Amino acid sequence: MNLSRRKWLLRSAFYGIPAAGFGYGSGIEKQWLDVTRLEVPLSPEHAALAGLKIAVMGDFHHDDFGDPRLIRRAVETINAEGIDLVFLVGDYISDDPAAIEPLCEELQNLRPRLGTFGVWGNHDRWHASHVLEQVLTNAGVRVLSNLGQEFPDFCVVGMDSHWGGVPRLKETFHNLPPGKPILLAWHEPDTFDFHTDPRLALQMSGHTHGGQICAPVVGPLLLPEYGRKYPYGLYRKDTAHLFVTRGIGTLTIPARFLCAPEVAILSLKG
Ligand SMILES: [Fe+2]
């Protein structure tokens, strides 16, 4: 092979492989919707939660290349599953609160049996606007920020964003009845290490996007602060579980690679 042909091949590989990867990540994988089904084995003291079916969705970043068709498919998927509770784990927007309107045009069609609950992400808090809560509430989403809601056999709790807000973990848990297991939504997953309360059965988080761009074998190339210890999936510590979703949207670049958008369906088992 002569020198100029070798140079041409090297140059083609240098520019062509990343370009093809970006084309695939933005044109194909970003439009996929993975439905992740997981069973969460409960500890005996949390048996009151057995049988619940929960959908987890988050990190919409709807002003950053959001696609209403993808959200619509996610909502239809959740409704077809016969879900009890939906948790939206924050970052509805990146920086433009106006994007909450078109997002909620889709989210308002969620039909879980017991309710849809949302928490704030760091981006929602950095660009806080009363519009966000108002539009989410009108769409049927109860926003829990350092707040709990009691059900007959369990409690649902949402914490404010650790990075962008002012979470009050001790006070919030202190105000909940003793003896009832807790389902918690908290945007940043690494906050899982803050807990010692034995009532906590399951924390649901997002924030990491699963890395958004992953490399074969290596996994996520970049992870955000408060999302480095628990980047994706199901974890257990003592009697509590943590589930971290990859989320559904994209941030900064309109592409996902080896890390497709996700709706998670969690079945709680006694
Ligand atoms: Fe986030």
Protein model, in words:
- This protein has 270 residues and is of the alpha/beta class.
- Helix content is 24%, strand content 24%.
- Strands 1-14-2-3-4-5 form a six-stranded mixed beta sheet.
- The termini are far apart.
- 46% of the residues are buried.
- The mean pLDDT is 92.
- The site of fe (ii) ion has 6 residues, from helix 4.
The counted number of beta strands is: 14
Tell me what portion of residues adopts beta-strand conformation.
Answer: 15-25%
Work out the helicity level: 10-25%
Uncertain runs are: none
State the major sheet.
6 strands, mixed
What is the succession of H and E elements? HEEHEHEHHEEEHEEEEEEE
Enumerate the distinct ligands: fe (ii) ion
Distance between the termini: 66 Å
Give the oligomer, counting copies of the same chain as homo and different chains as hetero. single chain
Question: What is the C-level CATH assignment?
Answer: Alpha Beta
> What strand line-up does the widest sheet have?
1-14-2-3-4-5
How many domains? The number is 1
Q: Let me know the average pLDDT.
A: 92
Task: Based on Cα principal axes, name the global outline.
Answer: globular
Give the number of helices.
6
